[in-house]
Amino acid sequence: MSTEIYSHNEGFSFTRVGALILRYTYLLRSSWPRLLELVYWPTVQMLTWGFIQVYVAGASGRAAFAAGTLIGAMLLWDVLFRSQLGFSVSFLEEIWARNIGNLLMSPMRPSEFIAALIIMSLVRLAIGLGPVAVMATMFFGFNYFALGISAALFFANLVLTGWAVGLVVSGLVMRHGLGAESLAWTVMFVLLPLTSVYYPVTVLPSWLQPIAWCLPPTYVFEGLRALLIDHNLRLDLMAEAFALNVGLFALAILAFRILLEKAREAGSLMQMGE
User: Which residues in 75-103 are b (16+ Cβ under 10 Å) and which e?
Assistant: First the structure.
């Protein structure tokens, strides 16, 4: 029996991943404010930027605004932000419940924990942005899903960046406790001006542009504008974003594991939430 248990614990267990996903699903289902929050802020942003786009397009007559660049950029920014937040909040649920120590002392492997957080990030994204994307079509005629393969490439690159940032934030919370909790809501906004969400990279000062091009989302937002304004799918930009994301995600996993070990050495996991 002991040999069977040992071999089971050594391998990746989809059962343990599924159990953790079920736990987070029950948390969502049991609280309508949690579900409402997932839709509320994306809806407010979509309406705000949608009306700004209508006003600017009417006042200036510029094709860039008429093409939906503002509302498209807003939807993609929310994919980036919500993918990171969905990852981090699911992790923080364990901190708030003072359960993180129990989880990490259980047979669950860190890779299984990360897999469950990634899947829940996608679930939260679907709940929050699915209805908002439909409303953007109804109210402003911008159909994100009509972008076809471009929509999938944009989405994949942005969620990879979001998960990478979520991994680092989760690691910092494990190591430094709830003092680092606010990073889950604030750290992504550092990228907002640098990734040229609502304007081309050329708008940035020349010394900032190389930094912007080091960030994968920059390539996505530049690709969105190229698609909507010039009707040109820039696969080169998507490939560069993906290459950067692979490196960024690998570094994030390494940082998460190092911070986890540091937290174990410091004994901070058992004091979490106190």
Answer: bbbbbbbbbbbbbbbbbbbbbeeeebbeb
Contact 63, 57 (CB under 8 A): no
Q: How far apart are alpha carbons 81 and 187 in whole angstroms?
A: 10
CA atoms within 13 A on the CB side of 181: 13
pTM (predicted TM-score): 0.89
Neighbours of 62 (CB within 10 A): 12
CA-to-CA distance for 28 and 204, rounded, in angstroms?
40
* Residue 141: predicted pLDDT: 85
pLDDT, tens digit (0-9, with 9 covering 90-100), for 98-119: 888 788 788 888 899 999 999 9
* Percent helix, percent strand, percent coil in the chain, to nearest 5: 80, 0, 20
Sign of CA dihedral 187, 121, 81, 41: negative
Q: What is the largest CA-CA distance in the chain?
A: 75
| Structural domain boundaries in the chain | 2-266
186-197 per-position pLDDT tens digit: 999 999 999 999
Q: Distance between the two ends of the chain, CA-based, in angstroms?
A: 38
- Cβ atoms of residues 9 and 108 within 8 Å: no
